[in-house]
Amino acid sequence: MLIAHKEELTERQQSVREHCDNVELLARAYGSKIGVDAAAGLIGKVHDMGKCKQEFQNYILGISNAKRGEINHAACGARYLEETYALGEYGGNLPVQMLALAVESHHAGLIDCISTKGENTYQNGVWKDAEAQFQAAVQTYHQECAGEAELKQAFEQAAVQLEEKMREIQHMGAFGKHLLEKYLFSCLIDADRYDTYCFAAGIEPKPDFKPDRAFWRTYLERLEAALEDMAKQQPKSEGEQKVRQLRQEISDSCRAWAKREPGVYQLYVPTGGGKTLSSLRYALAHCMEYEKEHIFYVIPYQTIIEQTVQEIRDKLGEDDETIILEHHANVIHGAEEEKTEEEIQKQYERLTERWTSPVIVTTMVQFLNTLFAGKTRNLRRMHQLANSVIIFDEIQSIPVKCIHMFNEAVNFLSEVCHATVVLCTATQPKLEGVEEHSLRLAQPAQIVEDYLDKFRQLSRVKLVDTTRWKPTMTYEDAADFVWEKHQALPHVLVVVNTKAAAKEIYQRLQEKNQMLPAEEAADIILLTTSLCAADRLERLDAIKKTPAGKKLICVSTQLIECGVDLSFDCVVRSLAGLDNAAQSAGRCNRHGEMGCREVYLVKLCEEKLNKLPDIQKAQESCERVLREFAKKPEYFGGDLLSPKAIACYYHYYYHERKNEMGYWAEKSDRETLFDMLSDNETAWRAYTHESKQQTLPAMRQAFAEAGVKFHVIEDNTTTVLVPFKKGEEYILQLNGQCSPEEAVKLARRAQRYTVQIYPGDWNELEKKGALYQLNCGNIWALHDEYYDSELGVVQDAALKEMIF
Asked: Which stretches of 344-490 are assigned E, i.e. beta strand?
């Protein structure tokens, strides 16, 4: 028997034929969602043809000195496809190259077709095997796994499917080809890794669970019942009753719209309009109507994902993560190259990161990584996006550099993968108006058709531009301004752009507060990412439970702007984008309980934004709108938060940054990542200048290099576990004698007790001995004296005892 895998302890064996047959069936099922089942099945069938080589069999039987990864088994199946079916058109036959590229790349990830240095990486990889080795492996494969006639028939079906699909995506250009290649590769890599995991675990691979109409109806009925219970609660004021009525109208619009055919839609709802539950209602009803497989709820910030997940779980009455999966960065990372494939897959399965759950709540980072990051553990999830509902919450937070890739990917998911996409926000960016690579919305696109009227009716605040009479403020000025407002209004929120600004203003307000008698003092609460999630959630809960007569000031970074159901009497916002102002305004008079309140824009001259170019440029575009509003407020309907003002802001912001939207990874790059994943023109010219090939490759993309360079945010932080309350207990347990299985469970539970540390801060903390590595190997912890009860992670341990 030709062996594909061997279990070391029990010496159980899986044959190449069994593995290839399993992968073929799984990949075929994944590919069927977009009509490429034959293509996905074929690459699954031949992907491990190279394991029929004698040298691989000697290695897996332990009768050679070869080490793991030394014997290439991926090139053989790719070469077979090229030699057998390209018919003399080496590299010029697009269906063949798409199939062969997936097979050639399945071990380490999608390779470059043409590298940015002009090398034909694809061709070099296909011909790695010596002729005699290759011919012997093919002959053995035909005898043991699949004959020539069977493969020929499979290829003919695959070629027809791919040619039809290429005609379908012709208008998407080379970027569309790159996405189709990734989809095929996703089918193969997930099927391969999943079957390998099942063999190692001693279980049979099975098809993914597919919810039916009855399944979605059950959860829709639960949500409807929860919404009815909410409606029975007595409003506290006439204003709150009006807001509730408008939310109900928005929710009902979503329910009715669910019957419309799949497409890309916008849910343009004012802040406080209840878009989270309204969009969930739409998604459940649409899934029931069209038998969709998943609901993805994509959230911009990891800091708010847990509370969003909890709200969805509460309303659906479901805690099981096999039904509702919360997926974002976890404590365990790195050191994967030291583990076996089986160990990686076991951990992968335990963490439920295959996106097989019906409802997945994840971050924009994870979503974009799935499509564009280079590692196979990301791309293997791509096929799960097909035939799903994808809700993007606060879509305005999409990084500018990713816009071209995001737009074309959403077009592909909608038009090719039959996904329904909903863009939710109170500040809808004009993604459909982006030059060259615009988002193709359904027509009509607005789920709430009378959204302009809803904005007028839900107007609960007035945005006040203080820069008209005080161009800039120091931190001390800002603290004085906040304190002055606080004298008349008991609950005040301050939102700034940096942690340093939040800390400075917080400390100055505390100094003022300490001068008051205890019975007159306010609760002053700081919210930044220097605090672990558990600490932040406790503080948010304390704000929600603040008694009506108790004074309160909250100082926060922008993490409070999205997904946080809080209502303040007054908001002061450090100048950033007009969208940020609108989001902060959503925390003021949220339920219409206080008539109309003010949100003040201030410009902090001490707030350093030189390392935050996105905020800096957003601030400049916002100032331009403020100047125009001051001259002609009637043009904007007298409201700085009107859809017309927001549209004007995005026009300026996107126009100023239109050359950044293709993602320039490095200043020295001659092409954007979008270009590298399309025609890869610079590398192509270098290749054709040197090449003497008569027939040129059909695929040019630099998949690997683009994947390495892709980062949604330039986040080179490291996770550290902090000793906040139960976090201290987790540190002790993980630093003790616990099994790998126990460590995985503990690490997941400990996620909300972690903080992300940037390199400069990490180096300083390391020098001071503030950090130490736990016994489980790849988790770091922070010494107690460096986590302050007020500020969170601090650089100076002495500071902890000095503060107030």
From this structure: 359-363, 388-393, 420-425, 461-465
SS3 content of the chain, % helix, strand, coil (to 5): 50, 10, 35
Tens digit of each residue's pLDDT (9 = 90 or more) over 308-364: 888 899 999 988 878 998 887 643 433 333 444 445 445 444 444 689 999 999 999
Q: Contact at 8 Å (CB) between 493 and 556?
A: yes
Report the C-alpha gap between 182 and 165 in whole angstroms.
Answer: 14
Mean pLDDT confidence for 647-656: 93
**Between the CA atoms of 84, 184, 441 and 248, what dihedral angle is there, to the nearest 10 degrees?**
160
Question: Would you call the peptide bond into 697 cis, given omega within 30 degrees of 0 as the criterion?
Answer: no
| Chain position carrying tokens 């180096």 | 763
Count CB-CB contacts under 10 A for residue 228.
Answer: 9
Q: Which two tokens stand for residue 699?
A: 């695929």
Within 86-130, residue ranges assigned H as helices are 94-105, 121-126
What integer is the mean pLDDT of 566-583? Answer: 92
pTM of the entire predicted model: 0.90
Which tokens is 771 given?
Answer: 């950090």
Q: What is the largest CA-CA distance in the chain?
A: 90
**DSSP states along 612-650:** -HHHHHHHHHHHHHHHHHHH-GGGGTT-TTSHHHHHHHH
Instruction: Report angle CA 331, 335, 336 to the nearest 5 degrees.
Output: 95
Q: What is the pLDDT of residue 238?
A: 75
Give the residue among 323, 370, 386, 290 at the shortest CA–CA distance from 29: 386
State the Cα–Cα distance between residues 409 and 371, nearest whole angstrom: 8
- Please measure the distance between the N-terminal and C-terminal CA atoms of the chain and give it in whole angstroms: 74
Cα 42 to Cα 40: distance, rounded to the nearest angstrom = 6
State whether residue 325 is helix, strand or coil: strand
Identity of the residue numbered 753: Y
H-helix segments, 11-120: 16-31, 37-46, 54-60, 75-85, 94-105
Number of helical (H) and strand (E) elements in the chain, helices listed first? 31, 20
Taking Cα atoms as reference points, which of 542, 560, 568 lies closest to residue 502?
560
Q: What is the pLDDT of residue 740?
A: 74
Question: What is the mean pLDDT of the segment spanning 751-755?
Answer: 89
How would you label 21-35 residue by residue, b for 16+ Cβ within 10 Å and e otherwise?
bbbbbbbbbbbbbbe
What would the mean pLDDT of 1-25 be, rounded to a whole number?
92
